[in-house]
Amino acid sequence: PVKYRKDYKPSAYLIHETKLDFDLFDDHSIVTARLKLQANPNADPSDSLVLDGEELKLLEIFINGQKLESAQYETDSEQLTVWLDKVHNLNYQQNSFELMTKVRIYPNTNTSLEGLYLSNGKFCTQCEAEGFRKITYYSDRPDVMSIFTVRIEAAQQKYPHLLSNGNQTEHGKLANGRHYAIWHDPFRKPSYLFALCAGNYDLLEDHFKTQSGRKIKLEIYVDKGKLEQCHHAMASLKKAMAWDEEVFGLEYDLDIYMVVAVGDFNMGAMENKGLNIFNTKYVLAHSDTATDQDFEDVEAVIAHEYFHNWTGNRVTCRDWFQLSLKEGLTVFRDQQFTADQTDHAVKRIEDVKVIRSHQFAEDAGPMAHPIRPDSYIEMNNFYTVTVYNKGAEIIRMYHTLLGAGGFRHGMDLYFERHDGQAVTCEDFVCAMEDANEYDLKQFRRWYSQAGTPELTVTSEYDELHRKLTLHVKQTCPDTPGQSNKQPFHIPLKLGLLDKEGKDLPLQLAANPEQLTGDILHITQLEQSFEFTEIAQQPVLSLLRNFSAPVRLHYDYNDHELAFLFAHDSDPFNQWEAGQRLFARVIWQLCAEQEAGEVMQFPLHLVNAVQNLLSSESLDGRFKALALTLPDIKALIEEVERVNLDHLIVAHNFLKKELACQLEMDWLVHYQANHHVGKFQQDKTSIAQRAFAGVCLSYLVALEKPKAYELAVSQLLNSNNMTDAETGLKLLMHSNYEDKQQLADDFYQKWQNEDLVVNKWFMSQATDPSDPTIERVETLIEHPAFDLKNPNKVRAVVGAFAGANLAQFHRKDGQGYVFLAEQIKRLYSVNPQTAARLTGAFNRWKKFDDERQRLMCEQLQGILQLPDLSKDVYEIASKALG
Ligand code: ARG
Ligand code: ZN
């Protein structure tokens, strides 16, 4: 059952009004829907009305007050079909008509966390992408937009808060201890933006005054007892609202904005109109229980969902193939927001790390798809780093090509044209194009072609004519279903550094249109560019700020990299040069092992690292990033096949050597940056904690009692979770002899804070040492573990399979067996989360023959499971190819 983008057809019927009645009970709910339907003038006429519906028990069905007979309609496991031509006196081609259905559903046994479900004694919904059909019969597609009025009825004691989208228009008491509320949303919206919450929450209230002077009520609903952990989310929301007004001129449109936090949630959060529903992980934050990174993540996700109100809700997607229209754009917006709140270089580096470790892997694997996919089996499998993060990189390239002003003009035109509509990625490109009179014909290929383009650059310097020639070649590997790709329009931001490290002015000898400022336009498979007036042989700083999501090959020598690391004015490339230096050493160490030689530590690194450590001008967070060795996952993506054992040994060797060579430096800087006094969370303190944490990680790599003492002391004496978690993780990943005792004590202390317990789970599941497999086996039996809770599953199983390369890829295959067993336990409970876990097998082709065989064996076993969900089926079957 594959769905194709090319098969798009407008819906035969539109739904002008949607009236929903929810009668909520502990063991079931009754949903009555009254839909005002009309034949779509822009679609082929149809005599039958087909609505989506899954896991619904149809109790009643009426059209215009007429009860339907069994010969007039039919239901199966996915649809309701009404033969309108068999309904008496119904002029369905001309007039609008009302369909009333009453269904029974079971939120209490709904473990898929899609549709309406009971979690922790509270009702909530998740409808994107296609969950609304588990609530009632409906045209569950984003281009069918409707005005919703929702009545909720439930027991007052247990469910004092009854929430839905828009404004509350009425509420009251009923007999039998029940009460009700009515909500009306004045904005037309697709079903995926519908939300309902009912429960007994603690409530944090505030307000925001918009630039035009409207006062918006802000409300955050959380589990009882968690109010103290909501203030950061509230402050973040207000910042996001102000930022969107300032940067994009976008103001909030309803009088109330609500956020509800739930512990059981498949994803991060959901932008339902006026009623966002969040994973607790992205709302709750207090310095006792949340790290600096958690604080930043909360701020980013709160902003992301808020920004969706315009990019997603006011202008939505025509169909799910267009998902990146809202997600790529909204991720770009939240990235810019976070950069403005924190540090542009640091944020850029963090975002690129995600691209390189995760998106490049996806783009090179069996699930590779363009940011606008052409087909899918299960839409939920396409909420990917490609659609989201590569999508954001594509949006960023408009910003790079058109400038901040041009980008803003494009956005303005996009809203002017499409406010209130469900549109396509093509509509967005046209707005950018028309607002700037800029030709984006070739640029459109970023939407249709999957795979990571590779740029290979060579250079020649001609001293006599003071000329530098760049030869640039672009290729893009074949991906499933796509070969022989056409060249992309790639903005290559660059600088040419003179001997002092200063940027030389850029000027082309011919075709000046190929250079805009410091952006070189790469548009052909092979191109050469001649820069004139270059007085001395420069050092090349290429792909500054990671101006395009590509792999860049340029044959740097160590000297050039050290020079860039020390001098590049582009902080991203400065970091990049350091990472390249490290990566070269790691690959060299691998080669030495391959050849049976003793590994040699290259002393030239010591100087570069020492300079960085003691730099007074660099930010602590930047230093932390620059001192962190390249991620093994990203390194694996640099080669065709990997010898994982050698790679891990090389990585550890380099870390330990750097630790030894600079032991005193790590200690001095640790002591200078680690503070035990009053907790502060200003930029300087955050930077110091990040820097101190990396210093401590090198010290712990020494495996000396003194270093362990420091980590233990940081873990036990810290007054904040950032320091505590750093200490915990480092110790759990070390061979410190009392680590089990520390783990037990940590659990004792934090057992009532789920999010902290997840950190505890994760730090143990990612321990690279051998007994970890037995450890995770006991962790999933631990009373705090719950297979039905995705955060817990991610903290143990997800972390083990995704972030513990050494143990997941154990030679005996036990890591693979463990993962497959968990998928087997989970696939019918929560298909979405099970499918995510299955993705850990996607890169099997990168490994040695024996590991390949062991992984395939598990994938085959998964495919054999009875009643396999289509979510898991799609991932596993594509992985095997
Ligand atoms: N639109 C949400 C966000 O990006 C994500 C919801 C995805 N949910 C899902 N089940 N696929 O903020
Ligand atoms: Zn989103």
Automatic annotation (TrEMBL):
Domain Aminopeptidase N-like N-terminal: 19-193
Residues annotated as domain Peptidase M1 alanyl aminopeptidase C-terminal: 558-880
InterPro entries referenced in this protein's UniProt entry, alphabetically: Aminopeptidase_N-like_N, Aminopeptidase_N-like_N_sf, PepN_Ig-like_sf, Peptidase_M1, Peptidase_M1_dom, Peptidase_M1_pepN, Peptidase_M1_pepN_C, Peptidase_M1_pepN_C_sf
Cofactor(s) needed by this chain: Zn(2+)
Pfam family name, one: Peptidase_M1_N
Sequence ranges assigned to domain Peptidase M1 alanyl aminopeptidase Ig-like fold in this UniProt record: 451-555
Enzyme Commission code: 3.4.11.2
Function: Aminopeptidase N is involved in the degradation of intracellular peptides generated by protein breakdown during normal growth as well as in response to nutrient starvation.
Protein name from the UniProt record: Aminopeptidase N
Species whose genome carries this gene: Kangiella koreensis (strain DSM 16069 / JCM 12317 / KCTC 12182 / SW-125)
Lineage: Bacteria, Pseudomonadati, Pseudomonadota, Gammaproteobacteria, Kangiellales
